[in-house]
Amino acid sequence: GVDASIEGIVQVDIPAAWASLDLGSEATDAQKQKVAYGKGPRMFPEVQDAEQFAKQVQSPCNNLDGNALPVSAFVPGGRVPCGTSQYEKRGIAINVPKVDMDLC
Q: If 0-12 CB within 10 Å is exposed, 13-18 middle and 19+ buried, where does residue 33 land?
């Protein structure tokens, strides 16, 4: 359980050179692909564009075409930009049933 998982935590040494990694080429590659993209806790501007993310990722997923998306279309950790819910609004029903509370 929880106690076993706490005992399993180990310290991992991270190379100091990682503090100055150049992510410029990854950002350029993402722009060429025109896919919303993120890397670790730092997200590129493309992933912060809610409309672009909704069109390129959410819309295909909602249309059950998500299997056709490349892995690079998804942000590691499953993060989604703020403001995407406005692109998922659904219309209300044409016919709204009348509830007869005496029959409930």
A: middle
Q: Could you report the per-residue pLDDT of 60-88, keeping only the tens digit for each?
A: 888 899 899 888 888 777 778 888 888 87
Alpha carbon distance 33, 83 (integer Å): 22
Taking the C-alpha atoms of residue 36 and residue 38, their distance in angstroms, rounded to an integer, is: 7
Neighbour tally for 27: CB within 10 Å: 15
Q: What angle do CA 28, 25, 14 make, to 5 degrees?
A: 135
Which tens digits make up the pLDDT trace of 28-51? Answer: 554 554 444 444 444 444 456 788
Pairing status of strand 42-43 against strand 38-39: antiparallel
User: For residue 80, what is the DSSP state?
Assistant: -
State the amino acid at position 76 in one-letter form.
Answer: P
Residue 58 CB neighbour total at 10 angstroms = 18
